[in-house]
Amino acid sequence: MNPLPIVIRIPAQADYLDIVRAALYAIASKVGFSYEAIEDMKVAVTEACTNAIRHAYEERGGWIELSFLWDNHELRITIKDDGRGKEEIPTQHMTRSVLHQSPIADVTVGGLGIFLMEALMDEVHVRSENGTEVVLMKRMSRNEEMV
Q1: DSSP bridge partners of 112
Q2: What are 64's strand-pairing partners?
Q3: Which residue intervals define the domain Histidine kinase/HSP90-like ATPase in the entry (predicted)?
Q4: If you write DSSP's letter for every residue of 98-145 in order, what string do you get?
Q5: Which domains does the chain possess?
Q6: What is the DSSP letter of 16?
Q7: What is the pLDDT of residues 6-26, one digit of tens each?
């Protein structure tokens, strides 16, 4: 598959999440991810999009842009919005070590989405500057079975 990104822009509404999941399935199966890996990615991407829908725009509406990039046995999925975001997300990079230094009881209500994304993906990066950008990465294991 060509290492150019596939970009999808959807309204920030839950009604459009099935389009995102269908596109993710098509892309991930085309490059050879297993059914289980694709299902994990669908959950993580849905969570990131749901966060954008719930927190970025409130009542005024907006857009979510998704970019899928396959390169060197890794699928990089970027979810961007230009909304205001959640107050709890730091303005710097959020890394796995920052999140896992705190007990799960200290996570704010609705803050488990990042933990879920990290459990399902190989890497998760969140940046909140002029909107929010979530980058999810999944590497192909050597023993992936084609869908």
Answers
A1: none
A2: 10, 81
A3: 10-137
A4: HHTTS-GGGSPTTTHHHHHHHHHSSEEEEEESSSEEEEEEEEPPTTPP
A5: 6-139 (3.30.565.10)
A6: G
A7: 999 999 999 999 999 999 999
